[in-house]
Amino acid sequence: MSNKKRALTFISTFSVLYAIIRLIPTFPMIGIATTFTASDILAPLYGIVFGPLIGPLSIIIGTYLSILLGRQLIFLGLDFLPGALNAITLGFLMIGKRIYVLSLFLIILIIYAIHPLSLVIVHLPFFNNIPMLYNWLHILSFIILISPFGKWSVLWVKSNSTIQLARGIFILSFIGTMIQHLTGSILFETVFGLILQVIKIEAWPKLWFSIFFIYPFERFLIILITTLIGTPLLKAIKSLKVYTDIPIE
Q1: What pTM was computed for the model?
Q2: 3 state SS for the chain
Q3: What CATH number belongs to 3-240?
């Protein structure tokens, strides 16, 4: 089978898988009557395994398939964007294009910071109102990305060691998941705050304040499950020598 036909086969197959998993609800979205979905677990794995083209294309197609199957449309047709950016960034990291990921992540951080509805500083009421950055966890993932761990995680994923593989998936999933979450946050405040104006401007500070205490636990659970599922999955893929963008050492 040619690479083109093989790529089309993977896109069609894993688009359907993504669509089905996207029908499974997980955490409620605070502020609107909908939920996150289990497909958040797949997005980083799609980027790691299939790279910056097949991975995000499968997510884009799978997102629209899930909408046809009954999943609620949330972001005016841009529902695919957070997951697709997750896969694109990790796909680029896997092929050594870290500068693309650094640039994209920095742009997303800046967009959130200058967005008129964003909450940048949170004053912690239980610690004498000490100020803290709302997106401290996103910034931490950016720091890890620019550190040696950003490079080491890719090498660990390509390793045959189970421990190194799990470590690499955890770090890469952390980076991709935080990019996805920040992108989703920007879409959330833009669509529901500026365009549809479902959530009033004065309600946003309290809304972000509530989310601030919840999102780290949600993201950690997603990253943990991704690692637990991804580690044996990638071990199996390597042992079977299934086509992926991961060179087997």
Answers
A1: 0.93
A2: CCHHHHHHHHHHHHHHHHHHHCCCEEEECCCCCCEEECHHHHHHHHHHHHHHHHHHHHHHHHHHHHHHCCCCCCCCCCCCHHHHHHHHHHHHHHCCCHHHHHHHHHHHHHHHHHCCCCCCEEEEHHHCCEEEECCHHHHHHHHHHHCHHHHHHHHHHCCCCHHHHHHHHHHHHHHHHHHHHHHHHHHHHHHHHHHCCCCCHHHHHHHHHHHHCCHHHHHHHHHHHHHHHHHHHHHHHHHHCCCCCCCCC
A3: 1.10.1760.20
Q: Which amino acid is at 108?
A: I
Question: In the chain, what is the straight-line distance between the N-terminal and C-terminal CA atoms, in Å?
Answer: 24
Burial of residue 213, with CB atoms counted within 10 A of its CB: 0-12 exposed, 13-18 middle, 19 or more buried: exposed
The sign of the torsion formed by the CA atoms of 3, 5, 11, 13 equals negative
- Give strand pairing partners of 28: 35
Is residue 44 within 8 A of residue 1, CB to CB? The reply is no
pLDDT digits (tens, 9 = 90+) for 203-231: 999 999 999 999 999 999 999 999 999 99
184-206 pLDDT per residue, tens: 999 999 999 999 999 999 999 99
